[in-house]
Structure formats: structure tokens, C-alpha cells
Amino acid sequence: MTRLGPLVVERRLAPSRAAVIGVSVLAVVLALLVAALIFWGYGVNPWQAYATIARGTLGSRHGLMEILRRAIPLLLCGVGLALAFRARFWNIGAEGQLLAGAVAASGVALFSRLPAPWLLPAMFGAGFLAGALWGIIPALLQARFAVNEVISTLMMNYIMIYIVEWLIHGPWKGGTMRGFAYTDFFPSAAQLPLLPGTRVHWPTLVLGLALAGVVALVLTRTRLGYEVRVVGESTGAARYAGINSLQVMVWVMLVSGGLAALAGVGEMAGIHYRLRSPTHISMGYGYTAIIVAWLARGNPLAVILTSFLFGLIFAAGDTVRVVLRMPFQFVSVLNGLILFFLIGSEMLMQWRVRIATKEERWTGKAGSSAS
Amino acid sequence: MDWQSWVIGIVGRALAFGTPLLWATLGEVSAERSGVVNLGVEGMMILGAFSAFAVAQTTGHPGVGVLVGAAVGGAAAFLHAFMSVTLRANQYVSGLALTIFGLGLAGLLGRGWEGAPLRQALPAVTVPGLSQIPVLGPMLFQGHTVLTYVGLFLAVVLWILLWKTRWGVVVRSVGESPATADAMGISVFRVRYFTVTFGGVLAGIAGAYLSVAYRPAWTEGMTAGMGWIVIALTIFSGWDPLRAVGGALLFGALYHLSFRLQGLVPPELLKLMPYASAILVLALVGLRGTWRRGAPAALGQPYARGER
Amino acid sequence: MLAQAGTSGNEDRDLVPLVLLQDITKSFPGVVANDRVSWELRSGEVHAMLGENGAGKTTLMNVLYGLYRPESGRILIRGKPAVISSPRDAIALGIGMVHQHFKLVLAHTVAENVALGLKGTPFWAPARSVERRILALAAQYGLSVDPRAQVWELSAGEQQRVEILKALVRGAEILILDEPTSVLTPQEAQELFKVLSRMKAEGHGVVFISHKLSEVMECADQITVMRRGRVVGTVRAGETSKVELARMMVGRDVVFQLAKGACSSGEEALRVDQLWVRSDRGIPAVRGVSLRVCRGEILGIAGVAGNGQRELVEALAGLRRADRGRVEMTGRDVTNASARAVANASAAHVPEERLRMGVVPGMSVEDNLILKRHHRSPFSRGPLLHLGRIRKVASAAIEEYGIVAPGPRTPVKLLSGGNIQKLILARELSGEPALILASHPTYGLDVGATEQVRRFLLHRRDRGGGVLLVSEDLEEILTLADRIAVLFRGEIMGTVSAAEADLEEIGMWMAGERRRAPQA
């Protein structure tokens, strides 16, 4: 406890919800302030830049719809990562899991010859399974061979990137695409309906919102959710309670990878209609979703909110590129900054500032009543 | 081609590709020996690569570029040290943030330099004397830039520092049991800042090697996940600088092989080989059960003096 | 700043205390650990700091050693005001501290540990250079230890010697020992007392932190009693009694013996035959242990820490694989059964590591009260949790066991140690278990909570539960157990009934010397 004039700064054991929200907002604002330097460095007036961004995103129907469109994959990946983080499994592999879903969906769309009404459900199903598989492998590697999951999930991202590259350059290369590395376009039965005049593939959005609710319910109201929370909070207690951590982890990664893969299916069937270069499919959604989940503090319902925030940042990236003629990497820089400020401010939340009591002012030092 | 010159060729190329892996792994070993995981290697390397290229291109002196790359890598690592040591933030997330930030910043600033070849690359030199040793000489001490030789030398120096000196006892103690080191009057804070920053300097040089020596040009994302391979190599080498040399050579050879085999196997599938091998190698280490034995006991844990 | 500051060290040394603490205040969130504490230490004395857990003795000494910075107060060393903001400052002032949990690097050798942070060691091969000094000091004070041994190979007693040597090599004139006997056999404790008296004779000032009355009476010259962050008083050891000290410690008269009914042992709750278990390092830690616990009796396992107690309990609780042997609980074979199967066999487990194992600190009181039972009716229906039922059971348990918590949704990490242990007992005793495995159930608790926990265990025993009580606190075992077995290097050295227990013989067994043949 330290006294600063009429104020007392003291530590507390559990941060209040208001403190968490307040500090998180502060972190985002600070990141925006630092990012202003980048505009300034590019010779753009930061205030004008932010005004332009606001107009280009929040200021028009088109802009709002672009936010929505960008938020869809972030939402699905973010919910999955929130679940993994609750179990303290460092899934950095949403990017690869998303691509796994895209590959599976493309395979079904291009080669399955299923009757039209079955095509889209089959794409989502196959995508989920592929992502689940891509997610379970690191879980098994960690449980059986103690392979650090940060490294394995990351490596799996690169492996999937090169698999996609191989497919579009090699066996799946489209006959109608001349020299370009794309597959053929999907049949129209494999394309999702859009909100008119936008690129918002609303069925995926509805799916994402529904799954956020489902995962939230599973975490709070089911046995499995309880076990996930125990495993995440304390491996010692999980062992003591006879909880099969491996089984829990496999479930978690099955869902986490599967959800990220659904995002990939959505991008395929809603935006691109063909498998193409990984950088065009994902643009780093899987990595940004880490920040989405972290900012939501592992709460799937809060992910809905944070995914829209980062959807806004992605949409801002488009505006920055098109209107201000600056590279899209602006988004990565801003994301990195937000993450820095977010974790850096975590310690802030453990302190509380309040007005000193009369007694404390009288004695000139902080008193004993903290709780 | 007789088998001897074939082996010499392979090892030589493996060393050329292994050099950045070696530098960055030595840096990560330094940081992790004091108990700090830095997952920002990829970010530090790309920042080092870009700044070294930009400076070398403008000044015409590749050596100056390398020095600036080192300084930039060190500065990036200092940021991580501030996050993880002073603010006691989650080291994994801080490192990830550094990587995301570094890749973004290098891409943002490097837009105008994209694809340009470097005016003056770091020259290859031959070590007088040592290169005369049969087989070993032409393999290790010929046809590389000075960074390769210094890297090998540094591995030995770092090993001696860690295991045979007072400095090493201090660093290892901070990584094994910071509370003990603190109680013995050692500033855990200062040691960790130093090792993490030093590690960043080495990662910056690793990046500089890529853009100034190995492939004298700047392309966005040219580190291509090498920073993550380095994290795996650190574990694979058991946090031992000398074994890091072996690990770097092995993966250097793998990268080299993925060029050699083109034509037989699609190039995209060859490119994923190092990443798949990294997982495989870690699984083998885990299978042998030696995984935790070499790891510093306090790895990844922020230290705060016993406040309740 | 103040007039006393001018006192110089040249005056009569006996008049100037080695350490003088004035009005030290140090607080943590929710507690004032030291409230305007004043205290002094003179050279050539062993000064005991006596008090319950949480009384503030260790905090005060951590302030003196520079680990904590007080909010107010002054420190004078040899009459001169000192600012001690880190252990480095403390060491420079000739202060050494042996913490309760040793501050040693397990992966290093003894010499490396001693050389760590030592001024004047050479840059190259620093460990080699201190070996000779270690051996000389070891001979002088009777602290034999091999400088080249790796610390993790040493027994707790040897590790303690390394800690003392570390302080001596640094020229410590003031040595603080925090609960030093908790890891020692009675005989080892006697040896330690001898070392302390040698140090006293050489003019050192020794601080001895303890909560055990008898050993304080035995080895101290001065005794300062603390309670709830304040000094109750300082007395000379020769001029006081255990009863007076106890009253000062607790603030009321203390009953030393718990009322314990006669043991009425029934059928077997636990039977262990020739059990072999390995430690984390793969070394056999439990070597052919056989024992049995009947319903309605408490079997106390005594022994110095690290003699296989942890591995034994973990193997019984289904947390560690046994290599050989057989375990039966209420007649059922549960050898190498899972933790869940053991729990289902009506065995409760009060684990040694309360915070790391016994509870999930970040989860709520009610979530913690169903741990281990969450998958069963009435708390689960199929895959769903029955939240209403959980809330009801939790409220009842909070009431029955007197758990002080703001509410059932409060995270457990905000509870005090005593309340966490009560929560664990509430959960573990709720199913009327036939067998209770209890490891160090009162470790670190204050007197009030200790008494309550012991009552809960005795109550369960009286209602027909068998209890396997593992503790390093011999007094606790003598108070609670009906029979006592001693574990040394993974073997049972002997078993006696508590009524016939001979303290000296138990002490011999704890040190590994056997006079009688072991019995199951």
C-alpha cells in the first residue's frame, strides 16, 4: 500500500470485472496512440487517418458489412481458442486448422459429386473433421511424447500451408485456371448465400454465434466443461480428482480445431469459391484469433464482442491500404501492439486506487483495511 | 564426384544454412538458461534481417548492416524482457506478440525495398591455417562468411561461460531457482534482462545473416518460420551450446536436402520437411524421456519476491 | 535524523545490540503481518521467535534480511541505522538466513551453491576455489558435508548444513534459522543445537524461529513471543515456563491433550503387502512396505521428510504406479487402481500439497466442494451438472464445517489456509469414507484451525473410519495416533502402539537405527 496525496494505491487479490474491462479498453486505446506514430511516420496526419478509417468502416453500410465479414472467421477461431486457453492448451495452430477445413471443404466441393442439397452440409462436416484431426495431433503429441504444444501447433501451421501450396500447384490445380495456382471454381451448390450486396455469408455467422453460446454452456453447465476448467486451472488437482486429462485435452482440441476449420469452410464457400494461396485464404485470422480469445479472457460469449473489434481492425486495414495507400501489414503491427499493452496491463489490474480514509490521512500512512 | 567431396559439399551447405539457426539458437539458449522463454525469435530475426538489409543497402557496408541488425534484435528482446521480467507478463504471449509485431513492422517498412538485390553482400572468407586441415578444413573453414566462423567460436565460448565460470553459475542458478539466487544477493532482474537482450542480439545477427550474407536481398517473411525451428532446436539441444551446433547442422542439412531433392518430389512438400522433422525430433526427445532433465527448472516462470 | 543515530560501534559492545528493530510495520493485502514491532538481538545469544503460524515471525525476519521492505520503522545494526533493501545488503551487514524452504539450486553441487553470489570468487572455476573454505568451516562447527555432492542427492539435514555453511562462508555474524527442526530427526535436532551453541560461543547472534515450545525452551536464551503481527513480550528462557509461553502465544490457556476416546478397531480398512514404489527420479522410494489400518483407528506414519511418505500416499491414492506389492481397501484389491477407482472404494485423501492438489485455487468454493464427486449423482445427470443441488450441498458443508468464506461463489484462492483445509476435509469426509489418507493435515495452520482439523479426524475415527496419518510433526502423531509406524528410506523401521511409545526409540527409528525387528 502506498499513499499518494489523498489517494491510496493497494493490491488486491481478485480484480473486479470493471477493472478488467477498463484496463482492456485502456490497452486498446494506448495501442491506437502508438500506432498513430506509424501514420505520422508515413506522413499522414494520424487524426485524419483515424477519421478516414472511421468513415470507411463504421461510417457506411458497406464498411459495417465488411467488419461483419471479417469478424466471422475470427469469431469461430476465437471461440475454439478460448476453449483451448481455458484448458491451458496453447493452441497457436488455428491458422493451420482453418486451412485444414478449407482443404477438406474444397475436396468435397470439387470431387464428391454429392447431390446439391447435401453438398454444403458435407463440406462443413468434412471441414470440422479435418480441423479436429489437425488439432488432436498436437494434443496426443503433448500427452504421449511431451512435445511442447506451442511448437507443434505452429509447425502444423507451416505443414498445412505447404500442403495447400502443393495442392493448388499440383494435383488440384484447376484446368480452367490457365497458369494460375487455383483450383477450379466450386459448383454453385457449394456456395453459401450472402446478405444482398455484401460479402457476409450469413449462415456461417449464425453458426458462429450459436456455437459461441453452446461452448459457453458446455463450460459452465456440463461435466466436461467442469473438467476442462479443473484441468486448465490446476493439473495437480485434476490428477488428484481422477480426471483423465488426456481425454479432456482430446475433446478440447477436437472442438478447438474443428471450430477453426469451420471458419475455413466459411471462407471457401462464402468468399473465395476455390482453394487458393494460403495468404489469401486466411490473412492471419488464426493468429489474430489468439488475441481475440485472450482479450475475451477465455469467455466464449465475450469472444463475440472481441471478434467484432478485430473485424473492425481488419476492415480498417483495407481502408488503410486502399485510401491511404499503406501496406496491409498495418493490421499486424496494431495487433502486436494491442497484445503487448494487454498483457503489460495485466499487472495494473491487481492494483486499486481509492481515496484515503480520514484516519489514514491523519496518520499519514496507509491503514490495514484492505478487504 | 567422389564420396568425400560429396560429404564436404553437404556439410558445407548445411553449415551455410545452419548458421542463422545456430546464432538464434545460441541466443535462445542464453535466455532460457536464465529461465525466460522468448517465443519472439521469428520476430527478432525478421526485424534484424530487414534493418540489416536497409542499412547495408544505404551505406554500402554489409558489416554495418549486421551491427545494426544486432542492435535492433537486442532492442526487440529488451521489450520482451520488460514485459516478462518487469511486468511479469505471460512469456508465451509476450513472445507471440513480439513475433506478430515484428513480422508486421518489417513488412510495413520493407514494402519499398521488396525484392531488391543487395549492392554489396558480406564476402566469403577462408580461415588461414584451419582451412588446411584435411576434410574438416574445407568443410568448416572455407567458403563461408565470417559470421559462420564466429558462430561456431561463440558456441564454444558460451559453453565455457555457462559451465566453467562464475558468470555461468549465476545465470544457471537464476534459471533453476531464482528465489535462491535472489536470496544470495543476485539481481534476478538484471541477469534476465542481460541474457534476454543478449539472446535478441544473436537473433538479430541471425536475421542479418539471411538478408546480407546468405541470400543478399530483402523479401517479406524471408525467415519463413525459422524462428520457430530455433525454439525446437533449443529443446533438442538440451539447452547446451555445443549440442546446438549439431542441431543447427542437422536442420541446415535438411533445408539443403529440400533443394537437392527438387525434381524427385514436389518442392512444396520438400519445404514442409524441416517443420515436420522438428515435431518428429521433439517427439523422439520426449520418447527418450530426457526432455525435462536438461530444462532449467524455473523456465517460463516470472519471478516476484515472495509477496503473498 | 534522530539523536540515537550517533551511537558509535566503539563503545562497549555489550551495550549496543547487534540488531535493533524499531516500529516495523509490514502489511500484505488483507493482513498486517507486522504491526509496529520493536525487537533486539545481542551477540552471543540464541534468540527464539515463538508464535503460531501467521503470527508474523518469518515476515519480521524477512524484513531484516531485505526480502520485504517495511512500510515504516527503522533498523539499526550494531547501533548504526541501516537500509536493507535486498538480501545483498543484508549479507554485506553480516546477516545470514536459512529459510524453511531451503534456497538451494538442486541441480548444482554444494560448492557451486556456496560460491553463488559470493564476493571474491574467481571468474574461472569458482566452485573449486571455495571447497577448502567449506571443509575448514565444516570442521570448526561440526557440519560435515561433501562439497562436490549434488544438492538433490543430499538429505534434508545435510541440505540444512549447506545453508548454514553458505551463511558462515559469507561471514555471517547474525544467523536467522526459520523452523530449522521441522526437517530433522530428534537426534539431528540435538546436533543442530550443539552447532548453535558453538556459534553462540564464538559471539554470533542466532535467531531461531519456531512454533514448538519444548525445543525453544531447550536451546534459546531469550524468547520473543509474537501474536497476530505484534510482539507479546520477550522473556529469558530460564525465567519462564511452557504454560506461560503457550498462553502468550495463543492469548488464552491451552489444553495440551485432545480428549481421545479408546480405540475400538474393527475390520480392516487398508492392507498393504510388500509395496514397492519409485520416486520421480526413478529411484525406489518405498521399499517393501507392509501395513494395515483398521476401521476406528489412526495409524500414524512418523519420519523425516523425504523418506518415502509422499510416494507411499500417492501410490495408495492411485496417483503413482507401484512396481510390486498389493493394496486392499475394505477387502477390495485396488493395487494400481486409478484415483477415481480408489475414491470409489470409499477412500478419502487429504493431500500434502493443499494448494497444488487439494483445491483448484481459481475456482469457487462450491466447485471445489464437488471435486472428485462431480461426475456422480447427485451432482451430475448424464453430461449435465446439477447446479441447484451443488449449491445446496455447498451451503450445507460451509455451515457444518465452519468454512469462513464470503459466499459459495468466492474463488478458493481468497480463503485462508485453515479455511481451505476445512473445505478439503468437508469434501473428503462427506461420503463417510471407510479410509482416510491424511498427509500433513495441520501443516502451516494456526492453533485454532489445527485443533478443529484434528477434531474432525478423531470424530471420523470414532464413527468407524480408519485413518492413515502421515506427519513430520511427532507431537501431532503422538497426540492423534493409536499406533505409530516409522518410515525410514522407504522401509517401516518399527510399529508401536501409542500407549507404549518411547520417544527415544522412535527417534532412533527415524534416524535409521533399529533395535527391534519390524512388524507389520
Going across the major beta sheet of chain C, what is the strand order? 6-7-8-3-9-10
Mind telling me the C-alpha Rg of chain B?
Answer: 19 Å
Structural class of chain C: alpha/beta
Secondary-structure class of chain B: mainly alpha
Number of distinct beta strands of chain B: 2
How would you describe what is shown here?
The complex is a heterotrimer of chains A (371), B (308) and C (520). Chain A has 15 helices and three strands. Chain A is mainly alpha-helical. Chain A has a three-stranded antiparallel sheet with strand order 1-2-3, with no helix packed on it. In chain A, a hairpin with a 2-residue loop joins β1 (2-4) and β2. The longest helix of chain A has 30 residues, at 116-145. The radius of gyration of chain A is 23 Å and the shape is globular. Residues 363-371 of chain A have low confidence and may be disordered. By secondary structure, chain B is mostly helical. Chain B has helices at residues 3-33, 41-59, 62-86, 91-110, 136-140, 146-164, 166-176, 178-183, 188-214, 226-236, 241-260, 267-271, 273-287, and strands at 124-125, 144-145. Chain B is globular and about 60 Å long. The relative contact order of chain B is 0.21. Chain C is an alpha/beta fold and 520 residues long. Helices cover 32% and strands 25% of the residues of chain C. Chain C has 17 helices and 22 strands. Chain C has helices spanning 57-64, 87-92, 110-115, 126-141, 156-169, 186-201, 213-219, 242-250, 309-316, 339-344, 354-358, 365-369, 387-400, 417-429, 447-462, 474-480, 503-510; strands at 19-28, 31-41, 46-50, 72-77, 80-82, 95-98, 174-178, 205-210, 222-227, 230-236, 268-278, 284-294, 298-302, 322-329, 332-333, 347-350, 380-381, 384-385, 435-439, 466-470, 483-488, 491-497. In chain C, a hairpin with a 2-residue loop joins β17 and β18. Chain C starts with 18 loop residues before the first strand and ends in a 10-residue tail after the last helix. The chains are: A mainly alpha (371), B mainly alpha (308), C alpha/beta (520). At the A-B interface, α5, α6, α12 and α14 of A face α4, α10, α12 and α13 of B.
